[in-house]
Amino acid sequence: MLPSMLSVELARWQFAFVAGFHFIFVPLTLGLTWIIFTMELMYVISGKEVYKRMTKFWGKLLGINFAVGVLSGLTMEFSFGLNWAYYSQFVGDIFGTPLAIEGLVAFMLESTFVGIFFLGWNKLSKKQHLCATFCLAIGSNLSALLILVANGFMQVPVGGEFVWQTMRMETTNLLDLFLNPIAQIGFAHTVIAGYTTSAIFVIGISAFFLLKKREIAFAKRSMAIGLGFGVIASLMVMFMGDQQGILAYKYQPMKLAAIEAEWDTQKPPANFNVVALPSQDNEKNYLSVQIPGALGILATHSLDQKIYGVKTILYDGYKDIHGKEIPSVITRIQNGAKAYDAMLEMRAGHDTKENVTIYDKYKQDLGFGMLLLRYVPEGEKLTSATQSQILEAAKSSVPNVSTIFWTFRVMVGLGVLMFIMIVFGLILLAKDSLWQKRWTLRWMLYMIPAPWIACLCGWIVTEHGRQPWTVYDMLPTSISSSTINAWDILASLVVFMLFYALLFAVEMFLMFKYARLGPQSIDSKVKHSEKEIRL
Questions:
Q1: Per-residue pLDDT tens digits for 338-393
Q2: Which residues sit opposite 168 in a β-bridge?
Q3: Cα–Cα dist 458/190, whole Å
Q4: Closest C-alpha among 277, 473, 262 to residue 369
Q5: Whole-angstrom Cα distance, residue 269 to residue 50?
Q6: pLDDT per position as a tens digit, 396-415
Q7: CB-side exposure of 153: number of CA atoms within 13 Å?
């Protein structure tokens, strides 16, 4: 029995809300730990108390973010078993491995050393406390690595194979799972985006103090570290984003075509759509402002490689990076239907040579055949599907082009704007004139939300661009969720929204309170001399 489409959509909305809310806290934790480590390292090397106060102040904001982030993430694991039962069964043997390691090793490491960071100032030497801060940073980043290894399998399923006897994926090679290029580049892109987010956070709050002419020594030093950290991180995040685009070209051509609103295959190098109004129903763009030849250079780093359009992938087929002919989606659905029907016959005990041969021949397209389960009446063979049902299933394999196209451009646009701000700030810092440019300081303050918006847009592009698959080309989202009543899912979604609204209110209240107080929240009695103000 398949879950209703209403249940599937509500389960998707619930998980998107829960994961998206949790993701708000992740980037700041990933990057702020390393910025704090840098500040504490300066304290250990120089012995200046101002660096200790910086470490403690930014550490307090990290602690608030970490605590609320942990609370917001607790519900996610329950969602897998409750709302995504078949998905959990299908990939549990593989998906569970990195998540178990994350919970037992990385999260415990992170949680242990976050406690030592706050409670160990008077119990550890300077170097011992610095080592604890380093372990805290390693733990937070290790958690991200393991989670993205699990997510990487959903993007490009390597290291496992489908076993028809159990109807689930089983691990074949853990090394392949962990070295999945999508996972590794995705990890680098995500954590460095977190570093950029944290740099903008530090820059923005430092700009606030400079505008208010408070805590000048603290703010100048924090600003300098934030700008230095930010320029390296923003350059690296652009490079890793470029690498992710190349991987999408190699492994996820439909996602790349959707990101670029590329309906027809152009003669290489393809033009880049800066602005477009895509029409999903008519499979074309009503408006398009293009840069000639730019897409081919950006996505393939070449002038002669084709970037296949949506319609080519759907109706004609294409060649992969190795020159292998990949059938059209329509053909793969027809082949997958044969494999699915043969599999059901074998599971019923009719494992004849003919059924085994058919299954082995078409099993690589089994997931595409499963797309038909939504369109063929229950109990009928998938091979009985009509041409209109096959066409409808094929069109369902295209993600929402407008959503992905625009969220990608918002992400890139904000990334470029942040990079320009950081470079401009560094130039003014080098001239020792940043402190007098109030409009620049205001710009830095108002840019604080930008990296979070960019990160969420990137998450939407990555995850929504994978649709209609929970496991790319293998397990459709439409059959992955539990057969739970839609009203029960809606009720839990409302409860989660209320709970997370409360968490968000607490987070904002505490962050605003202690950010405005500044280092005085650590020690209000400390005064700075004019000599200390100088960098």
A1: 999 999 999 998 888 999 999 999 999 999 999 999 899 988 999 999 999 999 99
A2: 163
A3: 9
A4: 473
A5: 54
A6: 999 999 999 999 999 999 99
A7: 32
Looking at the DSSP bridge assignments, the partners of residue 285 are 278
Is the pLDDT confidence value at 520 over 80? no
Instruction: Indicate the SS3 state at residue 323.
Output: coil
pLDDT at 400: 93
Residue type present at position 271: N
How many residues are listed for the chain in this entry? Answer: 535
- By C-alpha distance, which of 224, 220, 229 is closest to 519? 220
For residue 130, the one-letter residue type is L
Report yes or no: 309 and 288 within 8 Å, Cβ to Cβ. no
Mean pLDDT of 150-165: 90
Tokens of 366: 């089994």
**Cα 471 to Cα 94, 161, 432, 476, distances in angstroms:** 12, 12, 52, 7
The DSSP secondary-structure symbol of 152 reads H
Sign of CA dihedral 514, 517, 519, 521: negative
Label residue 1 by pLDDT band (50, 70, 90): low
DSSP H helical ranges for 47-180? 49-83, 85-101, 107-119, 126-155, 174-178
Pairwise CA distance, residues 101 & 463, whole Å: 23
Please state whether 450 falls in left (phi above 0), alpha (psi between -120 and 50) or beta. alpha
Task: Express each pLDDT in 442-467 by its tens digit.
Answer: 999 999 999 999 999 999 999 998 98
What the block records as the tokens of 351 is 């494992």
Q: What's this model's pTM, rounded to 2 decimal places?
A: 0.90
Q: Which residues contact 58 (CB under 8 A, 6 or more apart)?
A: 32, 35, 36, 39, 202, 222
Give the tokens for residue 20: 């998206």
pLDDT digits (tens, 9 = 90+) for 219-234: 899 999 999 999 999 9
Instruction: Based on DSSP, count helices (H) and strands (E) in the chain, helices before strands.
Output: 20, 8
Among 385, 448, 322, 510, smallest CA distance to 28 is for 448
Secondary structure string (H, E, C) spanning 228-270: HHHHHHHHHHHHHHHHHHHHHHHHCHHHHHHHCCCCCCCCCCC
**351 Cα distance to chain centroid:** 42
| Residue in the structure block whose two tokens are 């200046």 | 48
CB atoms within 10 A of CB 374: 17
